[in-house]
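Session log. Operator J.P. requested a structure for one protein chain; no other inputs attached. Running the standard single-chain path with token output.
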Amino acid sequence: MLVAVADRVFIYDTATGESVKQIRGHRDTVYCIAYQKDGQKFATGGADNSVVIWSANGEGLLKYSHNDKIQCLSFNPVLQNLASCSVIDFGLWQADQPNVNKQKTPAKCCACDWSPDGQLLAIGLMNGLILVKDKTGVELF
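Structure written below.
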């Protein structure tokens, strides 16, 4: 189990409830956490405009930045890539690509999630709109 408090993430043993590890990879408040479906990785996003991808035991694997605060994260349940949404854009991270594909959004992102088959990404915006993207980030409707 993961819990974010200020700029730290606490990893707890779900069987005992004991704190296992405390990690710090952000310079400001952590706003969101997402687990990869297979449990091998998790990601954190925060007020420092960065996303950190961690191993299950809390070792930092990758860090990348957006141009504003990270609002939400979601791992694709099939492809295992990560959608990260900020105040002004969203990004799609894939393990086999060195760069993150980022695209502007017309309003602040509030929530994001993938369809169960991993083919569609829905992004809820502050202005009431919902963007629907395919797995590569192309807007469908």
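Operator note: The chain has a mean pLDDT of 92.
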